[in-house]
Amino acid sequence: MKQFLAIDIGASSGRHIVGHLENGEPVTREVYRFPNGAAEKDGGLYWDTEALFSHVVEGIRRAMAECGEITSLAIDTWGVDYVLLEGDRELAPCSSYRSHRTEAVIGKVHALVPFEELYAHTGIQFQPFNTVYQLYADKEAGLLERATDFLMMPEYLSWRLTGVKKKEYTNATTGGLVNAGTGAFDAEICGKLGYPARLFGELCPPGTPVGRLLPEIAEKAGGQTEVVLCASHDTASAVEGIPPEARDMPYLSSGTWSLFGVRAAKPVLTEESRRANYTNEGGAGYIRYLKNIMGLWLVQSLRAELCPGKDYGTIAEEARASAYEGLIDADDACFLSPESMKGAFDAYLAAHGQPAPRAESDYFRCAFASLAKSYAAALSELEKLTGKKYGGLCIVGGGAKNTFLNELTERACGVKVHAYPIEATALGNLKIQAKIQGE
């Protein structure tokens, strides 16, 4: 029996899931879970890459100890963030996309390459943390002069495991540097921004082998295995993990972020698409035409501030019992990385003439209802942009377990919600690995 290990790392947690096929159906087992999060240091916000890598190795060790031989493993993570290398050394701490470091350079980037031109080339929606802007901040800091390579987070972790550097297509597309038509780094855009060509090598499709574990890693893990590339952007793997019966529906990958979209045969680069801030990210043989909108970050941040440790199920049921009717614009920039999420809610609601929440549950009710409103707006936009009318919505990811949010979403969108409270990302990751092995 061939067993595969999916290492799925999100912005707030990571997990190692071992899977195999029985009668063509996946059977999975979580063997390791760990917390993740960026930490403030010297005025910036950074990922602890050493801690992440230690967790990756420990999870591999647990998988081999509990499940035996692992045929292969693959890593998926969030997008846009990367590690700059000088030779085989990490050149600088890995900044988080929630850092404010790009605010001063966005205008400079657009002065060289207007956003209309960026979108026409890459099809990627504007987000202030896109890789295209982060690299410019690094350029101004003098880092690109010394950098010999840059690796997106899953590529960096795979390199640490194997000593082999390979760049994967789906994750690269998230940052706004990949040509939507060719599927390669856009040399014209990179050149206009003064980014060294040496940083941008060939992009590999999902399913590409990387290499075997380095001897010292295999010794720590207690065994040897092959590292391969899955669709290494977590949402790309999640879309691969959607059950076959739901693949023609719009999907909502509900986690820290909400990613709302459909599978498309080719990119949509129209002016209407650009104005709606829809994006054309790479998938496993198709385009993920979607909108990257606010997700459970609102709820996670409120919980951390108001009721640390309280069970999310309890939070949802208390929100259901609240009669509060105030709403925020969940995608307003003030909610991206506030010092206080409660304070951001209070300020927004006051500025828009809405009553102040009186109880903890009112804040959560407002967050859930505002997310549902945001999903309804995204669905309406999607129908206009694709010229199609959809009768259902497929929800995967952690948010699919939230029945209250699903009910609010169904009511707001006016379509049937099909919630799949499964580890869709891990399933998509495992599916690509199994396909490599002919299963």
TrEMBL record:
Keywords: ATP-binding, Kinase, Nucleotide-binding, Rhamnose metabolism, Transferase. Residues 251-434 form the Carbohydrate kinase FGGY C-terminal domain. Pfam families: FGGY_C, FGGY_N. CDD domains: ASKHA_NBD_FGGY_RhaB-like. Residues 5-239 form the Carbohydrate kinase FGGY N-terminal domain. The keyword Lipid biosynthesis does not apply. The keyword Transferase applies. GO terms for molecular function: ATP binding; rhamnulokinase activity. GO terms for biological process: rhamnose catabolic process. Belongs to the FGGY kinase family. This is Rhamnulokinase.
